[in-house]
Amino acid sequence: MFKCNKLLGASLAVVMGVSACATNVFAIDTSVIDEKWGKPTVVYGGGLTNDQIQSTRNLFDIEDTNNVYETSVDANDLYNYLGIAGGDTSSLISSVMVQKQDAGKGVKVKIITEDNITKITSNQYANAAITAGVSDVEIDVASVSKVTGESALTGVYKALEANGETLDLDRTQVAQDELETTNEIAENNADNSNFDSGRLDQAMIEIKQELAEIKKNQGSAATAEQVEQVVTDALKKFNLSDIISQDDIDKLIAFAKKYQNTSAIDSQEVLEQLNKLSGNLKNQLSGLINKAQSEGWFDKIINFIKSLFN
């Protein structure tokens, strides 16, 4: 049975791996001004030269700069939003474009230059942004050269504050911890064919939802034992408990304890955004499976696995 589960997990990882490579169809339109929500806000990395800024405009398909509001991030923003001291402005290369959306749209992230954002996935950005208090926005991320991508959320926060939104800095810093935790776990398991970052994204959503439910039901934050059980159950639900190491599990537990001490734990808006993101992830998987079935290769994988036990 264990062998069967591992093989089935591997086949799921194949499908989810394709999902990770799939190109999202949405992108912010800068050809016209949205009269309801105004101009998109573009935040350039402070380390870009003028030529690189123009190249970044091209990546975002900005033909008329009058249709966007432009600003940049520097080392001071890293400290203000993420609590990172001693940052170097010249190393900030990744840029973002942010557009507010109608209520209920959720947080959608498109990485324009997937080859140049080497560590962070679109769903990891979205998950962490929700923790920070971001809601109903479309975010495009781009970089003119290869970067890890961890600092891109700084630009998102600066864009939102430029448009009058107030952010809880405790939550932005915990969100950055979330981004770094999920990325570190993904990197630790990069060579493990049974691991899939999409299932880790779902587990993170589950952990945050369950911690909120516990707080709601008992009127206080989860105990240390409850936090450990929530993490254990989420990993089991998404077939990760036998795949990631105890050290990685401990990282998730440490994050969960930090998360439940922020105002995000009591936010109905956060739950709504998490539900929307979870639905988007499920739709991505369903769409890829349907595509695989229509092209015939999904059945071949299943038949191959079945043949091993005949």
Question: Topology, please?
Answer:
Elements: H1 2-21, E1 41-45, H2 50-59, E2 69-73, H3 75-82, E3 95-100, E4 108-111, H4 122-132, E5 137-142, H5 152-162, H6 169-188, H7 197-218, H8 224-237, H9 246-259, H10 268-295, H11 297-307
What does this structure look like?
The protein is α/β, with parallel strands linked by helices. The two termini are 14 Å apart. Strands 2-1-3-5-4 form a 5-stranded mixed sheet. It contains 11 helices and 5 strands. The chain has 2 domains: 140 residues, no CATH class; 145 residues, no CATH class.
Q: List low-confidence stretches.
A: 1-25
The helix-strand sequence is HEHEHEEHEHHHHHHH
Number of strands: 5
Number of domains: 2
Strand content: 5-15%
Assign a percent range to the helix content. Answer: 40-55%
Overall mean pLDDT score? 85
| Radius of gyration over C-alpha positions, nearest whole angstrom | 20 Å
Q: Count the DSSP helices.
A: 11
Shape: globular
- How far from one another are the termini? 14 Å
State the major sheet.
5 strands, mixed
- Helix- and strand-based class? alpha/beta
Give me the side-by-side strand order of the main sheet.
Answer: 2-1-3-5-4
Could you list some keywords that capture this structure?
single chain; 310 residues; alpha/beta; 2 domains; five-stranded mixed β-sheet; 11 helices; globular; disordered N terminus; DUF1002; signal; DUF1002 domain-containing protein
Question: What's the short version?
Answer:
The protein is of the alpha/beta class and 310 residues long.
